[in-house]
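--- STAGE predict ---
source: upstream dedup step, 1 unique chain passed
mode: sequence only
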Amino acid sequence: MSRAWPEGVARPRAVLFDWDNTLVDNWATIAMALNTAFDAFSLPRWTLAETKARARASVRERFPAMFGAEWERARDVFYGAFRERHLEGLSALPGAADLLAGLKGQGLYLGVVSNKHGPFLRDEAAHLAWHGHFGAIVGAADCPRDKPACDPVDLALLPSGLARGSDVWFVGDADIDMECAHNAGCTGILLHAETADATAGFRQKPALCIKDCGELLALLAEA
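--- STAGE serialize ---
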């Protein structure tokens, strides 16, 4: 049985996705690379849970506060460790491949806006053979400002000819994604919202909370 379309939510012409913990899991490798940088500076390590909670902003946004004047050296250590293992540690989240193929088949414009370094992001999309689904794949340092600023949204939409607006959905798993959606005037969709308090502490609330990729695909089949 089909579901009713949510009242007050614009039907999308374009869907922009966050990457890590939205479409893929690469957290173990991110945690390893961060801890390699922490070790190099004799700083306390983060657990996997701490990494998932704290590693939201881009490296160029968060590393100066974490490492001070030597943040660029820490960045190089982090990137060096991550580069060696990020593809072998990468896996698609359940239903993500079907979601992308289904939305592409509906004729929706798809893009990626992530705070993962752009070259790593595009390598990962190619590794999963997903790059053909997206009109643009925009990562950290591809624009003057990173997410939650609007710059990467504009760049991701550029090939589509579409302007930012409520008919552009920004799908992500974290508060920074909802902030980016709000800043860009897009519709924020929280994916993998498995608990009632999934948006606790969010400054910007999503228009919809979706539990998994399958539910999102089913909803957009009605669009």
